[in-house]
Amino acid sequence: MSSTIDSILIESRVFPPARKIVAGATVSGMESYKALCDEAERDHDGFWARHAQEHLKWRKPFTKVLDESNAPFYTWFEDGELNVSENCLDVHLENGNADKTAIIFEADDGKVEKATYRQLHARVCRIANGFKALGYTKADRAIIYLPMSIEAIATMQACARLGITHSVVFGGFSAKSLHQRVVDVGATLLVTADAQMRGGRAIPLKSAVDEALADEGGDIVRKVVVYRRAGTQVAWNNERDVWLHDIEAGQPDVCEAVTVSAEHPLFVLYTSGSTGKPKGVQHSSAGYLLWAKLTTEWVFDTRPDDVFWCTADVGWVTGHSYIAYGTLAAGLTQIVFEGVPTYPNAGRFWDMIQRHKVSIFYTAPTAIRSLIKAAQADPATHPQRYDLSSLRLLGSVGEPINPEAWIWYYNNVGNGKCPIVDTWWQTETGGHILAPLPGATPLKPGSCTLPLPGISTGVVDELGNEVAEGRGGFLVIKKPWPAMIRAVWGDEERFKSGYFPPELKGYYLAGDNAQRDADGYYWILGRTDDVLSISGHRLGGTEIESALVAHDLVAEAAVVGRPDATTGEAIVAFIMLKDPVPEGDKAEAIAAQLRDWVANQVGPIAKPRDIRFGNNLPKTRSGKIMRRLLRVVAEGNEVTQDVSTLENPDVLKQFTGVY
Ligand code: PRX
């Protein structure tokens, strides 16, 4: 294992929680936080058992808590049985929340539709009955390729109700990526829409599904259920395709939830790693839901009258834990937004917070940074032009938030009175890991603060030994936790070697570099692998390289990230063509062609920002591409590092044109 550990300037400003916030908080004061940590330290199993009993409704109680006998394939509450959808919906029909609004859906065009817990429950039951009538059971897996909608959440919940393992694919991924996931997960059901509406435009989804399923292995999918969202024309396969409204029609409003074991895979979500192929991160039912619910209540310090808004898409893990599951299990009222933050203008988020009286707002640093820019360009979209007084808590997720953006968010959106919870976690962790508790933890802009109670994190060297304060190292999680990844779908070896390398004492290796300050606060320094974070979306550099070299014109490609003030990182591709290095218009034309190709192979979010052509790529004598040096070139800097290991040091001078 090797890493480049950069040092960062540590912020010195500290924001202790206001007395008013401490008073009513779920976890009130640092003593309460420490008491919970101590409880978990003293009796790890007992701590988790207590929460699992208090927070979940079991159909058969568990007698075992953590089973480590087949580590790292840990299991939690293994002999217990429950249903996730019952825990998210039915429980609220019995506890007085039946007529509470569960979802406030706002469409791209501003149209608002609401569903109470009773209505959402009925909708989920009708869809589940429809799936059942088509013959689906808990032995099946479903791919969900839907836009943000009540239907997307209801479909996930309907799958959970029947024990169908779902795998949501973000609508920004291409037919090729969709095909890869259908085949890898072995999906027999696919749920999609005719199109998705974004910024006033209809972007087709069903046609991508048709393309994906026409490829080899795509015929494993027996039925494609289509939600009519945009009313656009779609091609129709009478044998295979059915409308969502047709399968729901005439179905009863109740559907008995299927009992599943605590370890039953609730979902598989694909994410990028250090090899070309995305990996299917498999999550459990009970352990996952417990942590999604508990962290919702702890970290967002939720109250019954909150209006919660997480701006993520259900295609990412944030949309799973803090839209589709944790927030519903916690009985919150939440916003589900179909559109984009810049349509009809960059004041959309602030306008929605004002109109819906949002009290908790959870978004990504990249959104904040782009809205700062937009507010500078058009003062009418500045958050201070809106009444944001309903807000009491702000959150950040997906990438490090730079202190400047933090302070802007704090002052201009939170009016200097809302704590910001900077939450560090991953697809693999299922829920927050490092995050402040708003009624307890003093905040430092740019730090995701401390591990949550029950979570044991560390910063270690190559041998798993703790590094000194202020030194960078590998971020690890030392003890298993209930929401942890259970498997990489269909790839035991990748799970074991990727996440639990033997030299690290059995710790879970996150893949991030971090350092701790004198107060034990964590500062995330970036990934240790070639995973890129583009607008908070996780993409694999190797995945994009594989797509590029699959193009007829390309001989070799290397992809790196360069820092970008708005999107966090921007993709830079260094390309060696089979033909000589192109220049001018010809280079522009090839670059455009390659961008479209990547959009088609992976998805539009993976398009390289800069393309640089050269005669060859910098390699070590053993033939390894030196991405470290390419990063320097990508940033427009002169290479001052030692290049003696390079086969041909002059190779770095050739990438002059940026297309
Ligand atoms: O590098 C870390 C970064 O996002 C990675 C996980 O990406 P993904 O699985 O897509 O999940 C994103 C949403 C949880 C991490 O390895 N990351 C996530 N949150 C933060 C972060 N980096 C710094 N600060 C954060 N708060």
Automatic annotation (TrEMBL):
Q: Name one GO molecular function term.
A: ATP binding
Q: Cell membrane among the record's keywords?
A: no
Print the keywords alphabetically.
Acetylation, ATP-binding, Ligase, Magnesium, Metal-binding, Nucleotide-binding
What's any GO biological process attached to this entry? Answer: acetyl-CoA biosynthetic process from acetate
Name the source's superkingdom. Answer: Bacteria
Q: How is it modified after translation?
A: Acetylated. Deacetylation by the SIR2-homolog deacetylase activates the enzyme.
The kind of enzyme this is, by top-level EC class, is ligase
Q: Which residues bind Mg(2+)?
A: 549, 551, 554
What the entry lists under SUPFAM superfamilies is as follows:
Acetyl-CoA synthetase-like (SSF56801)
Q: Give binding positions for CoA.
A: 198-201, 318, 535
What's a Pfam family this protein contains? AMP-binding
Which family does this protein fall into? Belongs to the ATP-dependent AMP-binding enzyme family.
Its annotated function is as follows: Catalyzes the conversion of acetate into acetyl-CoA (AcCoA), an essential intermediate at the junction of anabolic and catabolic pathways. AcsA undergoes a two-step reaction. In the first half reaction, AcsA combines acetate with ATP to form acetyl-adenylate (AcAMP) intermediate. In the second half reaction, it can then transfer the acetyl group from AcAMP to the sulfhydryl group of CoA, forming the product AcCoA.
Protein name as it appears in the record: Acetyl-coenzyme A synthetase
